[in-house]
Design goal:
The protein is built from no helices and 10 strands. It has strands at residues 4-7, 10-12, 18-24, 33-39, 46-52, 57-59, 67-72, 77-82, 91-98, 112-116.
């Protein structure tokens, strides 16, 4: 099974930008849908964005217009470009996937910490 590793998090000031990467251990061509989730302590994991193999994207209302999800098949990597960051975007960000709409999620990784603070 494909394993995913998140990277690119860090400390950024409000209004700043970060680009997260989700590198796959194998080809992502046959993966139907890929996701970015985020989680803060004491809260449930929240869906941030998703992208299908056909390029259809969906975003949480809280990030629409600020975040952009993309897939690079040549690099077997998914990205999350985050602009105009706000303190409430602070969280651990995770990526995951489903090979088809009916299959379960893959294994959750360690995530990457994003902290938005002045």
């Amino acid at each position: 099974q494909v394993q995913l590793v998140e990277s690119g998090g860090g400390l950024v000031q409000p209004g700043g930008s970060l680009k997260l990467s989700c590198a796959a251990s194998g080809s992502i061509r046959n993966i139907y849908i890929m996701y970015w989730y985020r989680q803060t302590p004491g809260k449930q994991r929240e869906l941030v964005a998703s992208i299908t193999s056909g390029g259809n994207t969906n975003y949480a209302d809280s990030v629409k217009g600020r975040f952009t999800i993309s897939r690079d098949y040549a690099k077997n990597t998914m990205f999350l470009q985050m602009n105009s960051l706000k303190p409430e975007d602070t969280a651990v960000y995770y990526c995951n996937f489903r090979t088809t709409i009916l299959t379960p999620f893959g294994n959750w990784g360690q995530g990457t910490q994003v902290t938005v603070s002045s």
